[in-house]
Write a structure and sequence with these properties.
This protein has 305 residues and is α+β, with helices and mostly antiparallel strands. The chain has two domains: 149 residues, no CATH class; 149 residues, Jelly Rolls. It is built from eight helices and eleven strands. Strands 1, 3, 4, 6, 9 and 11 form a six-stranded antiparallel beta sheet that branches. The radius of gyration is 25 Å and the shape is elongated. It starts with a helix and ends with a strand.
Length: 305
């Protein structure tokens, strides 16, 4: 019944109309810095839906049960999708070849899940599911990460599970050697590059209404370690990256545990010509400048209070 409905001329015409409406969005930037990883992951699913919908739009005119028609269609999607990515690279968006894979996956799903089942079609359906797994995994990971972040807020990170490492970049690993809360901390290795850093790139909640940003940092060496903490909002990321348009603060780490406390008002008033937007904090970076030798630090219990 459902298969017959999807093959009707009315559905085909409606699909054509929706595809015409959707096509310009290939050349529009995704939500970008304003979005969460989950929104971006769902946005990317549009490639799958568009090309599966293209099969629906064409199926009353093309017999996709014939292998030659299916191969020609997939070839057309490969060429057309590739051209779209090339054009995007010259119209303010980044060409992304993973999007081309999603285009082909959507086409493959449409080709085999809209045909009458037989052994060959079922093989195609199984392959379609396999092709879908990376996208499904990306959406699942983004959903679970955001759920966990919402659950522990106003704690921003506690590093008790591998999920807590999602959205953190740097030479990092979870460690149960030193911790100020529960069982684990984040061990960060800082090398001698000009800017050795760890960056936190996923914050989902507003910092409005909180008084302080708190964190515990352990310096395992007998020597003092000087670091800098930097916090950006969306407006800064969309701007020209000016040093006086974000929050920057020097951290002077004594040996052992250091209890860091930064007033939220200090963060908000850091930009020279505006207030930092506490509703759209995008990243926090802790970095060292040109260390004479490699150093390690341990971060734990990053939270708002």
């Amino acid at each position: 019944m459902l298969l017959s409905l999807l093959k009707s001329r009315l559905v085909s015409r409606l699909a054509c109309l929706l595809l015409l409406i959707a096509f310009p969005f290939f050349f529009v930037k995704d939500p970008g810095p304003h979005s969460t990883p989950l929104v971006s992951a769902l946005w990317d699913c549009g490639h799958l839906l568009f090309f599966a919908g293209l099969v629906i739009a064409l199926q009353t005119r093309v017999d996709f049960s014939k292998p030659r028609a299916a191969v020609m269609f997939l070839t057309g999607v490969f060429i057309g999708g590739g051209l779209i990515e090339i054009i995007q690279a010259h119209t303010g968006r980044d060409g992304n070849w993973q999007d081309l894979l999603r285009d082909l996956t959507g086409a493959w799903v449409g080709l085999f899940w809209l045909q009458k089942a037989n052994a060959r079609v079922w093989l195609g359906r199984v392959m379609a599911i396999i092709f879908l797994l990376p996208t499904i995994f990306t959406v699942y990971t983004a959903t679970y990460t955001q759920y966990e972040a919402e659950k522990i807020f106003p704690q921003l990170a506690n590093f008790e599970t591998d999920v807590d490492l999602h959205g953190i970049k740097g030479n990092i690993q979870r460690s149960n050697t030193l911790h100020s809360l529960d069982q684990y901390s984040l061990k960060v290795h800082l090398n001698t590059e000009p800017y050795a850093q760890v960056s936190f790139n996923e914050f989902f909640n507003s910092w409005q209404g909180y008084g302080n940003l708190l964190m515990d940092i352990y310096n395992p060496d007998s020597q003092v370690l000087d670091l800098v903490i930097r916090i950006d909002d969306v407006e800064h990321e969309l701007g020209d990256n000016a040093h006086n348009d974000r929050f920057n603060k020097a951290l002077h780490l004594e040996p052992g545990w250091n209890k860091i406390k930064i007033p939220i008002s200090e963060i908000q008033h850091a930009p020279a010509t505006r207030l930092l937007n506490l509703d759209e904090i995008k990243s926090m970076v802790i970095f060292a400048r040109q260390l004479p030798q490699d150093r390690d630090i341990y971060l734990d219990n990053i939270r708002l209070q």
